[in-house]
Amino acid sequence: MAKRPDHLPAGEEPIEGGFTLTRMLLLFTLLPTICIGIAVLIVAGLTVKSTITERIENTLHVSNMQMNDYCHDWYIEEGEEAFTKEEGKEYDYVDEFVDAGLYMTVFIGDTRCMTSITDSTGARIEGTTASDEVIAACLEGGEEYTSDNVVIDGERYLVNYLPMYDDSDNIVGMTFTGMKYTTVSNGVFRTVLQMSVIAGIVAVIFIILCVLFAMKVRRPFREINETLRQFAGGNISGEINVRSTVTENKQMIRCLEVMQENFRKTIGDVKGGADSLSGGVVDVERLSSDSSESAEQISAAVDDLANGATSMAQNVQDLNTEVIQMGEKVEEINDNLNLLVENAENMEEVNAEAARSMEGVLESSRTTTDAVKSINNQIIVTNDSINRINEAIELIISVASQTKLLSLNASIEAARAGEAGKGFAVVADSISDLSEQSNESATTIRGIAEEILQNSNESVELAGRIQEIIDGEQEAVRSTQEKFDQLHQAISRSIENIRLIETTTGELNDIKLELTSNVTDLSAISEENAASNEEVAASVATIVNSVDEIANRMKDMNDMSGDLEDSVSYFK
Questions:
Q1: What does CATH list as the number for 21-226?
Q2: Is the model more confident about 75 or about 301?
């Protein structure tokens, strides 16, 4: 019999590439984490912006309250001349907080008289008037006015206005405290940047941990796979040094160790039996050769008398021995089948555990899908809010256009009034400037809103692509789960077939017992027939036939021993 090859047959070579266990673990742990991290950063950025803005508004309020009290006392002592005189104004107090980013202004009426705000040339912006909203709130309504979108000399400010009173509780002006919006945005940017760096460091650490975990989980599977490949190639001599902390892996490793031990025992027994058989054959051949020379001298005289009975007795005895050996082999097969059933049931339990794990992965993927949908819906709501902002901007632009038209009419009327209308003409020019500034600011805000809307639409598109990817991953997980179900069914069918073989082996054992009994009876009959012959003739015939039969049997057994050695030589 030819030896089997030391490598796997064609079609059973190791499969390379594909979707490995490591890639699957990394994908289903890192992708949800990254998505959640991005969402948390966005929410945290908005929260930080709101918190910083609120804190700055409180600072402006407190600073303006202090300045209002100071200016009130100053007004009581020196009157409005202290703020409106051309020379000798004391700017120490309003300039004191410039380095801290706070700008202060004193209004007498609606006109800026003293301020720390300067234009591009370094000149203080004084002599201009407050906006209609501020005048209506502070000078006319006597209320505090706060805003985060007041533009002064082309610069956006967060502002706080408070009305200023005289001794008679009459409103004589206002105090202003403001901070440039760029200061706020820079603070928000720095905070978000710090959070992003921290999140990035945490993400890197988490990725490293995920990779280490995936490698730790993958290593036992690769070692188990390599051990099985060695078994398939006939090498069962190596030690199984696979270690794992996963319960299912431990069960698989235990099954491998038991299977290897059974293989070693069975192959070792077969090889030992073949060696013993080969040695016995050599001895028997030598003895049969010596006996044959003596028996041939007397076999011719007694051959006709003793040949029949002796041959039958010998054949029956040999048949009885072979039947007993066959029964022993049947019992060994039955024991191996019981062990095979136990291993198959263990594999079925491991497969069930893996199927439940895949179900958990599928549930996690569904949760991720719901989170992405929620983010997508939130972005759509943001788009609607931006559209409403655009509508409000259009309204502001319309009001600014009408205001400019009214200021033009007012200028015409002031020109008609002559000298008496000059003051009204100044107010009309200021209103015209303010309407142009409002129009420009509204246009700028609309451009920013359109850019935000475009970015939001891109986020919606990106969320859609992420949704498609997650849907594809869910489909792959479901497909893998179906494969586990098919594997479970195949293992169940294998167990049924093994049990059927076990039943058949039991029936063979019963047949063996019955056949042994019949052969025993037949042996007794043949012995009685042989005893009726003469003692010498029977002895000679027995010797002759035994020697010939032994020689023939030894030749067959020698061939069987060689075939047996060739059969087990595949295993190492």
A1: 3.30.450.20
A2: 75
